[in-house]
Design brief:
The chain is mainly alpha-helical. It contains 9 helices and 2 strands. The radius of gyration is 18 Å and the shape is elongated. The two termini are 30 Å apart.
Length: 177
């Protein structure tokens, strides 16, 4: 049986002193991560990665541009997957989450196992899809705001909770970087 610590925290705040992360902090953390990773990709590709969003080039001359379009999107997805996977494994959170003092813990209140970061990173790629990602992101923010556990669909799939790092017990807080 999976223990849902988020529900316990909401129901009995005297038992657990963990503070669930606010929806807008989670959204800002993701935006900061996107700025960071895309900034690095822009520098590494000398700005050519931005062709991934220029659909008119793809429509005008598809035979010459389809390969570069696909390569750019592959680079974007690969970079974000690697970023979320390894920042999670190393720091138990991304840089944006670290900046906003957020931490991701497993549903039973322990640190998230290393193997689960791949799954969480893969699910986060849905937010990068043009237009669809924005819609899914807004739906998840609404779910976080309206849910008593303040969990997104990704949190439910991976059995995680996003909390304020300063509210964690000291034995867990020392493991964060």
């Amino acid at each position: 049986m999976v223990v849902n610590l988020a529900k316990q925290i909401i129901e009995d705040t005297s038992k657990e002193n963990m503070v669930i992360a606010i929806w807008w902090k989670r959204a800002i953390a993701f935006v900061l991560d996107v700025i960071f990773v895309l900034g690095i990709l822009v520098l590494l590709t000398r700005g050519r990665i931005t062709f991934a969003w220029e659909l008119n080039i793809l429509i005008e001359n598809p035979s010459e541009t389809i390969l570069w379009f696909l390569v750019n999107w592959f680079l974007i997805f690969a970079a974000f997957w690697l970023y979320f996977k390894y920042s999670g494994r190393i720091m138990q959170r991304s840089l944006g989450q670290r900046f906003l003092k957020l931490a991701i813990i497993f549903g039973d209140g322990t640190m998230m196992p290393e193997k689960n970061w791949e799954k969480r990173a893969f699910y986060k790629l849905r937010y990068l899809l043009p237009v669809i990602g924005i819609i899914l992101g807004i739906l998840d923010l609404i779910k976080i705001m309206n849910s008593e556990t303040h969990q997104s669909r990704i949190d439910w799939y991976t059995n995680t909770i996003v909390v304020m790092d300063w509210s964690l017990p000291s034995e867990i807080r020392v493991l964060l970087k």
